[in-house]
Amino acid sequence: MHHSRLCAVLIDCKTADVDEAARFWASALGRPVNAGHRMSRGNYRMLETPPDEPVVEIQRVEHESRVHIDIETDDIPAEVQRLEQLGAVVVSRLKRWVVMQAPTGQRFCVVRVQRPGYPKNANRWT
Amino acid sequence: MHHSRLCAVLIDCKTADVDEAARFWASALGRPVNAGHRMSRGNYRMLETPPDEPVVEIQRVEHESRVHIDIETDDIPAEVQRLEQLGAVVVSRLKRWVVMQAPTGQRFCVVRVQRPGYPKNANRWT
User: Fold this and answer.
1) CB half-sphere exposure, B76, CA atoms < 13 A
2) Which residues of B touch A6 (CB under 8 A)?
3) Which site among B104, B109, B115, B123 would you substitute to test the A interface, given the most A Cβ atoms closer than 10 Å to its Cβ?
4) ipTM of this predicted complex?
5) Has this prediction a pTM greater than 0.90?
6) Is B30 left (phi over 0), alpha (psi -120 to 50) or beta?
7) Residue B37, class by beta-carbon neighbours within 10 Å (0-12 exposed, 13-18 middle, 19+ buried)?
């Protein structure tokens, strides 16, 4: 038995300045940059998250700008297998997460648990 | 004075069968298709939304598949003006919503209020 749910909206920005990108999205969404968050480093900036909502984070990328979603889970291999059975395919397995592609074409990531309130508000898969 | 906030994650699918696309995402995210929702029609299928979370909806599109976000507001012209001042530009003004592009390149929409709990949990702009 494992759990999963929509964890985060990643705003992938092809930019030289991830802080400038984060400032725009922080102002646009009214979610201030959470500079003190342990994951606000390198190419990532976390925005503050209202209770019970998915995380929004800004990522500096080399590919074209886009938006992708992350699914969090307490069992990445089991969740990847479940999603494969639904028709998604693995694009790449990294050390801490797996990049997958949906049958409808979008890429998304399967990541470790990140949002508060997990697993009470997550889906339970047997 | 007006309000706005992140409203929805739109999963834009280049597909002939929006129902098949919606079934995949419903299973992947554990959010069943809400076929009875007034907005589940034409090219759109709404997924069930946990309390206080943004809506996830599946849209059939002609362009390449991607993900975009919607910002909801009780004053579309005021919100568009606020976002323009932050550096976003208007791509097209439709009857009920406005398509904008962020300085970081992603397109997003400014829409009328759709999520429950508005405006209590929204950002207030003066």
Assistant:
1) 16
2) 9, 29, 31, 53, 56
3) B104
4) 0.95
5) yes
6) left
7) middle
